[in-house]
Amino acid sequence: MDEANMRVDRTSKSDSERRLSTLVRHLGASCSPSHTSISTERFENSKISLSPMAAFGSVFANVVQAPEDPILGVTVAYNKDPSPLKVNLGVGAYRTEEGKPLVLNVVKKAEQSLINDPSRFKEYLPITGLAEFNKLSAKLIFGADSPAIQENRVATVQCLSGTGSLRVGGEFLAKHYHERSIYIPVPTWGNHPKVFMMAGLKPMSYRYYDPSTRGLDFQGLVEDLNAAPEGSIVLLHACAHNPTGVDPTPEQWEQIRQLLRSRSLLPFFDSAYQGFASGSLDKDAHSVRLFVADGGELLMAQSYAKNMGLYGERVGALSIVCKSADVAGKVESQLKLVIRPMYSNPPLHGASIVATILRSPELYHEWTVELKAMADRIISMRQELFNALQAKGTPGDWSHIIKQIGMFTFTGLNKEQVAFMTREYHIYMTSDGRISMAGLNSKNLPQLADAIHAAVTTM
Amino acid sequence: MAFRAMISSHATQQSKWVPSAGVARQMSSWFGHVEPAAKDPILGVTEAFLADPSPDKVNVGVGAYRDDNGKPVVLECVREAERRIAGNLNMEYLPMGGSSHMIEESLKLAYGEDSDFIKDKRIAAVQALSGTGACRLFADFQKRFLPDSQIYIPVPTWANHHNIWRDARVPQNTFHYYHAETKGLDFSSLMEDIKNAPNGSFFLLHACAHNPTGVDPSEEQWREISHLFKSKNHFPFFDMAYQGFASGDPERDAKAIRIFLDDGHLIGCAQSFAKNMGLYGQRAGCLSILCDNEMEAVAVKSQLQQLGRPMYSNPPVHGALIVSTILGDPELKKLWLQEVKGMADRIIGMRTTLRENLEKLGSPLSWEHITNQIGMFCYSGMSPEQVDRLTNEYHIYMTRNGRISMAGVTTGNVGYLANAIHEVTK
């Protein structure tokens, strides 16, 4: 370290800095240095007595501020807006018709039963997580009578929601699989490339979304995956593609399956919306089960963030379907070695809630009803928005709004149109034109329709 | 079962697509070459214990607190906090850096209620997945921003420390710590190693209740270590997994950290609430890095968040709510302090009893170290072969390095344990 780097800087405490600091603290968000004009005067009343040798500066003094997360930035801007008409369509979390977050009834019940059970303890879970949760999760996505499950060919480990499952799976592949390239659709969830890079894989891309049709670029997909080196890993969104909402048809899935298997490409599914997309858990698992049924191997990252509303509890599972039970056992043992140096063992609470619900026929049934209600509300918002634009005679083909599926709609609006809508109509959404249908309700939908109409006709 | 029937009836409504062509071409697994991983040495002990049918069996391998009946404990303050939390709050995502309330309270605990560093906002801190997660985030951060740096790790240490920095791809060195002959601290070798390490080296220090040895430097020794660190400009990274749990007093257990802070060090600190709040499975912890100024702290925090994002996006909310509910409420915090002292006192009492029993049995060896050491673990000094005898002949389970988890010792089994140890060591 440079010994000449004597640092006796202290912060001054202007009011604006305090306010900003409070905001920073409250949101836990990063803020740009331009807002915090921290002066470097000596701090006169320092109670800290520095020994003469305490002058070496921080070894991290050259760390630059990370860019703000684009999605979080939307919410930050939304929160700052004083307009009573503002609408937040950036958030990737379900909102009720009243615009409120939702804790499912069945989750509240499950929590209560956990609290009321005095025999419950909070000890460490095994590295692989709650065993019952793992079994139930595998059944949920693969189907209880899946041959892979019957034959004990599935290694399932509890992970921290979808993100954690992707990361653990990625690190496992980087250590044990012969190919480092992972093919990721364009566009995809912003965090995918980062997860896989940190895991030690090499993100590549394949065409997916066709802006001209606002649908699937199937031909581009086929071409790109045909060109991928044999054995490459391919990331597939199981349903309700994020951010486009564009899914392959069952026929297209079958063709994708054949393509992948014929070229020995390894499928890695990301399932964040099972049950949330169509309202049916089985229908939303169709693509995954298609692949499992052919006897081949695959990875599957499962999240309960949206479909059980367990967002902050970080509940998910990684399953690796293997050719044999023997291989699955060895794979599971190696997954432990990935997890242990990351966080030792997964959090208990959310997985306990899920297990409580999935193991009880009554609670399970209740869950499917609440889940369908969420999915139906979103589907009805899609229909209403489409109808509203039709009624206004908004130029363009807006059928993609009802063709796309899941929480998000890729409107096709460009950056300028989005900025216009934010400025003039207080509509907050990501600049790629993605809107979260979950943020819509009958009160704010007319405003969105107005905003889209205005943006399209004036810009 | 009704559940299966429900699933099956859903399944029959599936689409009519049946895979025809393109059955997976590969005949063998892509993962057939994967070797079975070696069992975790610590967790494997509990597995073996559970499998043992003997009524006399004793588990002193587990690093989790047990009451005097050998039962796991949920603190009253935790139960009350959970009652308050249930159903009241939503389960929305926390910010990437975690719960700001929990972080605030964690920092007060580690750095002091009235710490100027907190007031000056000089600490970059994020909620982490207990101690493991905090160490891993720091290791990843170290790798990204000081890619040429290494980490010095004490011998011995918690085995997972090595795994963490290895997976973060940060090269490791070791420094002397435990003195086998005295079963105490090898202070002179420790100081030698600190002196010989290149200036600006990164050191992993156990803030209190060293795991696995229970051997901590004295206050005076900590001062000397801090002084030497200053002249070498080393970076001190504290792993504090037992604050409150060691002496019964969290302020006292943070003494080493406070000494370093007084000396002007810019430290890093991993905090865990697994043991001192009994929150093991909730994975509640905090990583903090003391910076030069607020602006730097904001930048560092933003980068720590960037490392958490591709690992788990944002940390789990439940454990954080429990921690902030307890520490943020004066009554609950008072209750917690009582309960954590209760746990520490029980362990200290068991140390005394175990040592007395061994001395009464006329053991020729010195067992002073049992009461000299502190925290959950006692490094008995027994060899792996002696440990194996304890397991095979007496159904006593511990890790083969001779580490005894005092939390597993009760008034009910301390006599049996003392006798067995005496038998295999006499």
Description:
The complex is a heterodimer of chains A (459) and B (426). Chain A is of the alpha/beta class. Chain A has 17 helices and 13 strands. Chain A has a 7-stranded mixed β-sheet, sandwiched between helices. Chain A has a two-stranded parallel sheet with strand order 1-12. In chain A, strands 5-6 form a two-stranded antiparallel ribbon. In chain A, strand 7, helix 9 and strand 8 form a beta-alpha-beta unit. In chain A, helix 3 packs antiparallel against helix 14, helix 6 packs across helix 12 and helix 8 packs parallel to helix 9. The N terminus of chain A is likely disordered. Chain B is an alpha/beta fold and 426 residues long. In chain B, 46% of the residues lie in helices and 13% in strands. Chain B is built from 17 helices and 13 strands. In chain B, helix 4 packs across helix 13 and helix 8 packs parallel to helix 9. The N terminus of chain B is likely disordered.
Q: Which stretches of chain A of 5+ consecutive residues score pLDDT under 50?
A: 1-55
Mean pLDDT of chain A: 88
Query: Major β-sheet of chain B, in short?
Result: 7 strands, mixed
Strand order of the largest sheet of chain A: 2-10-9-8-7-3-4
Cofactor (chain A): pyridoxal 5'-phosphate
Family (chain A): Belongs to the class-I pyridoxal-phosphate-dependent aminotransferase family.
Keywords (chain A): Aminotransferase, Pyridoxal phosphate, Transferase
EC number (chain A): 2.6.1.1
Give me the secondary-structure topology.
The complex is a heterodimer of chains A (459) and B (426).
Chain A: H1 15-27, H2 70-80, E1 87-88, H3 105-115, H4 131-142, H5 147-150, E2 154-159, H6 161-176, E3 181-186, H7 191-199, E4 202-207, E5 209-210, E6 215-216, H8 218-227, E7 233-237, H9 250-262, E8 266-271, H10 281-284, H11 286-293, E9 298-303, E10 316-321, H12 325-343, H13 348-359, H14 361-392, H15 400-403, E11 408-410, H16 415-425, E12 427-428, E13 434-436, H17 445-458
Parallel strand pairs in A: 1-12, 3-4, 3-7, 7-8, 8-9
Antiparallel strand pairs in A: 2-10, 5-6, 9-10, 11-13
Helix pairs in contact in A: 3-13, 3-14, 4-13, 6-7, 6-12, 8-9, 9-11, 13-14, 14-17, 16-17
Chain B: H1 2-11, H2 41-51, E1 58-59, H3 76-85, H4 100-111, H5 116-119, E2 123-129, H6 130-145, E3 151-155, H7 159-167, E4 172-176, E5 178-179, E6 184-185, H8 187-196, E7 202-206, H9 219-232, E8 235-240, H10 250-253, H11 255-262, E9 268-272, E10 284-290, H12 294-312, H13 317-328, H14 330-360, H15 368-372, E11 377-379, H16 384-394, E12 396-397, E13 403-405, H17 414-425
Parallel strand pairs in B: 1-12, 3-4, 3-7, 7-8, 8-9
Antiparallel strand pairs in B: 2-10, 5-6, 9-10, 11-13
